[in-house]
């Protein structure tokens, strides 16, 4: 992975209210980065600043190590929260038009539009005006619009909201494909279960402050409690008397326990094995929802 987008110490206020406070994070190529936060946390404001639609009061946004230029911005794809397709233009015409605005030749714009509409299963809707589409199909058309010029950076504000599960998978497959081809993909969401499943990297924001950022796997490691799950044959009640162990759940052969700092999980495992077969023994990893609640406290 190469880091391509760097947001550094960005501050932004609206009137007296500071909505971004020293926001810093980075986005790499070939990865899906999820930008997570509650309503009003500052995701849209940050994305607008990245795209240059809104200015920062201080701080910098750099692309491949240099301030974002107009040319670099041309190579970005953006799906804004307020969406932005013309209701009275047909889907096909519109996407071709946007491709042209981003510098594609007429032939390339048409060819990319056809391919994308096919991928997003919108081919049959190509001749319809946007206002006639269902909300889910409008959303797919927005995604096609953001992708038409093969952007190097894709910034998508809540791209999955309002999509049914099949459309989510479709859009996800297209985004993964773009990432595999070398694009950097940043998208906001407040659907934690979805983000947990989709993202390689995470940026968690609350009240305008970045609370945690990094690869999903690293964050999960970092926020892992010294908590374990064990399944044995017979009753696991003996764990009550095991040094360093605090039981949090006991259900016959199945138990969840915490270890006091310094206690060794392998000692507990050996103790269990000395009593009989062990069917499962593993650290309990927190879900993204659990990490989120912990870091936004
Ligand atoms: N143009 C503006 N003028 C005044 N306040 C604004 C403006 N834009 C955003 N805000 C405020 O900034 C804060 C952050 O808003 P932002 O839209 O960035 O949050 P968000 O994380 O994207 O939330 P959501 O998930 O609800 O879209 C909110 O309190 C919002 O009311």
TrEMBL record:
One MF term in the entry's GO annotations: ATP binding
Protein name as catalogued: ABC transporter ATP-binding protein
Family named by the database record: Belongs to the ABC transporter superfamily.
UniProt key word Signal: no
Membrane topology: Peripheral membrane protein
Species of origin: Actinoplanes couchii
First-listed, main subcellular location of the protein, grouped into a coarse class: membrane
Record domain ABC transporter: where: 5-232
Subcellular location(s) of the protein: Cell membrane
Keywords: Antibiotic resistance, ATP-binding, Nucleotide-binding, Transport
Database matches in Pfam families: ABC_tran, DrrA1-3_C
PROSITE patterns: ABC_TRANSPORTER_1, ABC_TRANSPORTER_2
